[in-house]
Design a protein that fits this description.
A two-stranded antiparallel ribbon has the order 1-2. It has helices at 7-38, 51-67, 71-76, 88-106, 109-113, 128-148; strands spanning 114-116, 122-124. The chain has one domain. 58% of the residues lie in helices and 3% in strands. The radius of gyration is 20 Å and the shape is elongated. The chain starts with 6 loop residues before the first helix and ends in a 24-residue tail after the last helix. Strand 1 and strand 2 (122-124) form a beta hairpin. The chain is mainly alpha-helical and 172 residues long. The longest helix has 32 residues, at 7-38.
Length: 172
């Protein structure tokens, strides 16, 4: 499948779309990690620890959330995973995306889709750009869903009612 027009322009366009898709995917990963950080936070709890110890504890929680493990691990963590706190349909869709398209994008997507033409030029197979756009759209939708629903800190979400998607289970 030969590219139309300038092969270098096609490669550049796909690489730009790949960068945009990875930004969307990283936004989703961050949303899952932030849910992991705040999932068990009790805003009514008063600590008697020193201010220094409270800060250290907060920084350790942030470090564990953002620097250890994958977003899928945070979703399914046995002790503090966020999956039980999410709407079942959204949790299933999120898990499917993290195991499928997410892993494929991160581990070898560009290499899988790159081909050499009979002329010796390198190009991406047809549908590559569309696949990247779709991955960006899905990641953005999941990110929005996981950050706009009611939570302990923003019970009514941040989005308009027409765009709101139930994601986080309401608190009693």
């Amino acid at each position: 499948m030969e590219p139309r027009g300038n092969p270098d322009a096609n490669v550049s366009a796909v690489l730009m779309l790949y960068g945009a898709a990875m930004v969307a995917v990283q936004g989703l990963e961050h949303a899952v990690r932030w849910l992991y950080v705040v999932a068990d936070t009790d805003p009514t709890k008063v600590s008697r620890a020193s201010l220094e110890r409270q800060w250290r504890h907060a920084m350790e929680r942030l470090w564990r959330a953002f620097q250890t493990g994958t977003a899928a691990m945070k979703l399914n963590d046995a002790a503090r995973g966020v999956k039980p706190r999410l709407d079942a349909d959204v949790a299933a869709e999120l898990e499917r995306f993290l195991k499928g398209p997410h892993n494929r994008l991160v581990h070898g997507f560009l290499i899988e889709r790159l081909r050499r033409t009979p002329d010796g030029e390198e190009c991406f197979v047809q549908g590559t750009a569309l696949e990247l756009i779709e991955a960006s759209r899905v990641a953005g939708t999941l990110t929005h869903g996981c950050t706009s629903g009611p939570t302990r800190f923003a019970r009514h979400g941040r989005s308009s009612p027409s765009r709101r998607r139930k994601c986080v289970k309401p608190l009693s």
